[in-house]
Design brief:
Blueprint: H1 19-24, E1 28-34, H2 39-42, E2 55-68, E3 74-91, E4 98-112, H3 115-120, E5 128-132, H4 139-150, H5 165-174, H6 177-193, H7 200-210
Parallel strand pairs: 4-5
Antiparallel strand pairs: 1-2, 2-3, 3-4
Bound molecules: zinc ion (ZN).
Zinc ion binds near residues 92, 156 and 157.
Length: about 220
């Protein structure tokens, strides 16, 4: 094998990219990635979506910026800029039908060599994230991670399509409560449910009072 590890850009290399070389040489790469290549993203796509395998376009650009090191000497440090654009079908939390959500990612990363270095890196800049680089860096995984992070917290249509009359009353009656229960998780949900549920002992009490019969009347 005489493959030059310093030459990335074929699709296979995107899962094993020499990210340090990519940055130091100021390389650029671009392409498309399908949702079917992103298993965690695909999980978010409802089975009744019109298209479960949409395509995201991405661009990556390596660069270096001079930084003062611990020894007081300035040295070029590796950076990566990543942009991803596209749409994915996800489920609207309001009407529960699938809709197409546009996602934009534009992130800049300072590439460090180790987890320790990442932990120590001063996060004085909101614009720059820190990632641990590798000579076999999985760029597709980074793209997927960023797309997942860019999903709306509560995905929903700007304006939901008209719901059939027969469904409206049901939707209205249930609105809010089930969602809140889900979001609160275990403890919150059970505590919140308590007051709404008829108290069986109160009911029993009523029976006892009513049962022996109308003494007070
Ligand atoms: Zn909707």
């Amino acid at each position: 094998m005489t493959q030059n590890p310093g030459k990335p850009a074929s699709p296979a290399d995107l899962r094993a990219l020499d990210i340090f070389e990519f940055a130091q040489s100021g390389r650029q790469a671009a392409g498309g990635v399908r949702v079917s290549q992103l298993p965690r993203m695909l999980n978010e796509v409802p089975s009744d979506a019109p298209d479960r395998d949409t395509v995201f376009t991405w661009q990556a650009e390596g660069s270096t910026q001079p930084e003062l090191q611990d020894n007081g000497i300035e040295a070029p440090q590796p950076y990566l800029r990543l942009a991803v654009h596209g749409s994915v079908w996800i489920e609207c939390q309001r009407c529960l039908s699938p809709y197409s959500q546009h996602l934009d990612v534009d992130a800049t990363y300072r590439i460090v060599a180790t987890e320790e270095e990442a932990d120590e890196y001063p996060l004085d800049d909101d614009e720059v994230e820190v990632i641990v680089g590798s000579r076999q860096f999985d760029l597709v995984d980074l793209i997927e991670e960023e797309l997942l992070l860019s999903l709306p917290l509560v995905p929903k249509h700007d304006v939901c399509p008209e719901v059939h009359e027969s469904l409206v009353s049901g939707v209205e009656g249930a609105e809010g409560e089930p969602d809140e229960g889900l979001q609160n998780g275990g403890e919150g949900a059970s505590a919140g449910d308590e007051p709404a549920r008829p108290n069986p002992f109160a009911a029993l009490e009523k029976l006892k009072q009513g049962g022996p019969g109308d003494k007070k009347h």
